[in-house]
Specification:
This protein is an alpha+beta fold. The chain has one domain: Protein Transport Mog1p, Chain A, CATH 3.40.1000. Helix content is about 35%, strand content about 30%. The longest helix has 16 residues. It is globular.
Length: about 150
Amino acid sequence: MTPARALALLATFTATASLAAPPDACAVISLDEVNTMVAGAAKRAMPRKSGNPSECAFEDSRRAALLVLRIREVQYAAENELQYERENLEKIYRGKAKWVEGVGDRAFWFQQNKSGMFRKGKVLVTVSFHTEKNATEVDTMQVARLIESRLK
């Protein structure tokens, strides 16, 4: 291996390693806060994925997910990534996303799969309730606003 190639490989590794991991999805909102929304049914926060993306499910005593949070940090063009996610959802579910004001830099609610997604800086967050009572735009965006206030 030539010294120039080794230096380029080291620079690539350093740039990749220096990317900050997104906030932990299980730590960005507490179990008590989730319980205020789901009438005390959440018993534990179970990490589904760690790193980038980070995903967490707040589960009841039967291990059924009540709320699922997914946080992903992108390196470039976060707005394009948000638009790409929206377009994919619209193609898969054959529906239209509703843009929501006041959450992050840009946010939308998608009725067909009852989820909300927003972008703040280079962080993309997906919030979805899996309880019929809470799977509404109001409750989902309320959690999204809470999470957004805790992101840097």
